[in-house]
Design a protein that fits this description.
By secondary structure, the protein is an alpha+beta fold. About 30% of the residues lie in helices and about 25% in strands. The longest helix is centred in the first third of the chain and has 27 residues. The termini are far apart.
Length: about 240
């Protein structure tokens, strides 16, 4: 009994000394951060309480498939081209050019009219060599009229050596007639490609654009694809 009591006392003493030491050597648990929790469990998604959803930008397209997106892009590109073409036509037809003091229709009658008012010009040269028209010298700003009714084949601020020019397709006496009016003043064209014009209608004004050294109208006439001398053709056909 005495020995048992001694062993019990020794055990109690050992427990009293060892337990506080073990407790002191055990590291204290620290609060885990959001990042640490996520690292421990890679399959978890830990979201902070103050997180907000970022807006998803999808651009200007409501389409979802690649084909739909390409179709949408093509439609928008076509609209842009149409707008640019409309702006070009509007700028090409210069409405600020003063035509108030000019007759909108040339004097005379018949299917063919003189492209310049009678008495306003002198012919400096005509068809010969590489020159395919008649040069009708006239002051800058002299009105130019359509020699015949027809459709405007071309109208632009620059057509090769013609400079600012208008080209018409007509039918006169059952024959195909093409007439060209070159070297007009910039911004003076009064008609656009595809437009229908009447004989003697105002189409522009004499200038010196393109390959030109003086104010004049380069007037060119082709009948059934054959080059004509313009002054003689006018004399035979103009009313």
């Amino acid at each position: 009994m005495r020995s048992i009591a001694i062993f019990g006392a020794v055990g109690a003493l050992v427990a009293a000394v060892a337990l506080p030491a073990y407790a002191a050597s055990k590291p204290a648990e620290t609060a885990a951060t959001v990042q640490q929790l996520a690292a421990v469990d890679a399959q978890s998604l830990v979201v902070a309480s103050d997180a907000t959803a970022a807006p998803l930008s999808r651009g200007t397209f409501s389409a979802t498939t690649p084909d739909e997106i390409e179709k949408k892009k093509a439609e928008e590109a076509a609209k842009a081209r149409a707008a640019a073409a409309a702006a070009s036509v509007a700028s090409a037809s210069n409405t600020s050019f003063d035509i108030g003091r000019y007759a909108l229709v040339s004097p005379g009658s018949g299917e063919v009219r003189y492209p310049l008012p009678q008495g306003s010009y002198n012919v400096s040269r005509t068809v010969g060599g590489a020159h395919q028209g008649a040069d009708m010298l006239a002051p800058a700003g002299t009105p130019i009229y359509a020699a015949a009714a027809g459709v405007v084949r071309a109208s632009a601020e620059s057509i090769g050596g013609y400079g600012v020019a208008v080209m018409l397709d007509s039918v006169v006496g059952g024959q195909r007639v093409q007439t060209t009016y070159g070297h007009m003043i910039y911004g003076s064209r009064q008609v656009q490609a595809g437009q229908t014009v009447a004989a003697g209608q105002l189409i522009g004004f004499v200038g010196s654009t393109g390959r030109s050294t003086a104010n004049h109208l380069h007037f060119e006439v082709w009948v059934n694809d054959g080059l004509m001398e313009p002054i003689a053709w006018l004399g035979a056909n103009a009313g």
